[in-house]
Predict the 3D structure of the following.
Amino acid sequence: MEQQTQNFAAPPVPPTASTGKPANKLGVFRWAALGLLVGFIIGLFLAKISFALFFASILIFTIWGGYHGSKTKTQQQKWEEYQEYKKKAFVSDEPLDSREKIVIWIFCLLAPVICGGVLYYMWRYKYPTKAKQANKISWIAFSIEAILGIVLKLLVPGQS
């Protein structure tokens, strides 16, 4: 007789009724704990009316928090969605042209740290090459201003 071996694996997490996805257990715990805390605080105000309302508010907010937590996404799901978005997103690797460099130099000489930070964080995903170049220009402008400030401080007599 031929024996067949069966692999007994743990059953998968049952999907929730509304989404068809497995429930987020950590989300349930976190949101239920938050609901418990909110229910307790609100229950303290309701305890003056009725002690039963104190327990009812704790129960209602804990159940609501657990239900809401089961619908939240896990970190893995968020990461997978982000990777899908990155694949679909438009990304350009073209460098700054001369007009853009001139404008960035002017703005960076006026406010190097703010301008460089705004341009870098605004462009870092869609235009990574431009973002790095704008950041480099802002650091150069900041260095020039710092060196000029030190030199002028040393050259001007009578100021401490």
Residues 128-155 form the longest helix (28 residues). The two ends are 100 Å apart (CA to CA). Helices lie at 25-46, 51-71, 75-88, 98-110, 112-123, 128-155.
